[in-house]
Amino acid sequence: LSLKFGDIDNLKGLVMRFLLTTSYYQLSVQNWFSLHRLQLVYNHSVQATFNATRIYAPSSYSYHCDRVSSLQRYDALLIPSSPNDVSKLWEVTFIDFQIQGFNIQEGHFAYAKDCASFFSPAILMGLVMSLILLLVLAYALHMLIHLKSLDRHYECKASPAYFVQMKDNDMGDEKEPLRNSGNESYELRNQQFCKIYI
């Protein structure tokens, strides 16, 4: 697949060649295409060659990526073909890159397979936070389930409470003497105390 720049002054002789192949994979039961190589040709002479990595899609789809670049800061998908190649002198970056080499219908791209991975850093952080929240929730449920129930049993008995004789005579009806030696003590007839067993 060749990309020519037409009549642009400085780029008249520049051609970008995308070498695409298609192959059948039994596991997916369909054909896939992949971009193997990018060549920069200027005035019919190959100036630079880059090997492409991870640029593939089902042959009935197109491939899309926000950036396809030879620069490391953009997660280089284009790698110079050899360490001593002059390709290292070139920096190539495609923005909003979309390509489809096969099964093109009516001149429009098919549904695009995007280069974004399913486990991007944001998705991984979301999964980790969800796991932490689930662990906290499981611990809270565990603590709630293992709480002991508070069964209250009341046992009320008459209170043998004794009080020193009071000078008020108003409470005379509620008191009766217990013994006559020394200090007189009185028992409250109505007084009860309760023991609570938990």
From TrEMBL:
InterPro entries, A to Z: Ac45_acc_su, VAS1/VOA1_TM, VAS1_LD
Example of a GO MF term: ATPase activator activity
Compartments (UniProt record): Membrane
Alphabetical keyword list: Membrane, Transmembrane, Transmembrane helix
Membrane topology value: Single-pass membrane protein
GO cellular component: a single term: bounding membrane of organelle
Domain V-type proton ATPase subunit S1/VOA1 transmembrane: 117-154
Gene Ontology annotations of biological process type: regulation of cellular pH
Presence of keyword Transmembrane: yes
Annotated transmembrane regions: 118-141
Residues annotated as domain V-type proton ATPase subunit S1 luminal: 1-102
Homology family: Belongs to the vacuolar ATPase subunit S1 family.
PANTHER family registered for this protein in UniProt: ATPASE, H+ TRANSPORTING, LYSOSOMAL ACCESSORY PROTEIN 1-LIKE, VACUOLAR ATP SYNTHASE SUBUNIT S1
Protein name as it appears in the record: VAS1L protein
Organism: Nothoprocta ornata
